[in-house]
Design goal:
Helix content is 19%, strand content 40%. It starts with a strand and ends with a helix. The model has no long low-confidence stretch (mean pLDDT 94). It is an alpha+beta fold. It has two domains: 54 residues, no CATH class; 65 residues.
Length: 128
């Protein structure tokens, strides 16, 4: 099973309208964590229209890409909520008692947790 690794996100805070029209880099993974906030996993910067946007590195998360079957197994054992059937999709909620974020694709998923809870999360879910 893959191990949790630090994820080099960029946190972007801007008006919801600006984020709605932002052009994200092609290879980017832009996770809309709130109406006015995005966690961006990309080496290239986005094209923002908000001159007052806050764009800062955020190294506060760890995560792992897992096959869809492994994600499903973790959720069946450690969640009180079901994974959405629609893919690609971003969801947030408690997994193994820890706040988590999940990007789901057809064949895999990126499981993300705050770095401070990474060790506990890994032990609880078998990612240690």
């Amino acid at each position: 099973m893959p191990k949790l690794n630090y994820l080099p996100f960029t946190r972007i805070v801007a008006t919801p309208a600006a984020l709605d029209v932002t052009i994200w880099p092609t290879e980017a993974l832009a996770l809309r964590t709130a109406a006015d906030e995005v966690l961006l996993l990309s080496s290239a910067p986005p094209t923002l229209v908000d001159p007052h946007a806050i764009v800062v590195p955020d190294s506060g998360f760890v995560g792992a890409w897992l096959p869809a079957e492994a994600v499903q197994a973790i959720f069946e054992q450690h969640c009180e909520w079901a994974l959405p059937a629609t893919r690609s999709v971003f969801v947030q909620g408690a997994v193994a008692g820890i706040a988590a974020k999940l990007w789901l694709e057809a064949e895999r998923g990126l499981l993300i947790v705050p770095a401070a809870y990474g060790h506990d999360f890994a032990e609880r879910t078998g990612l240690a």
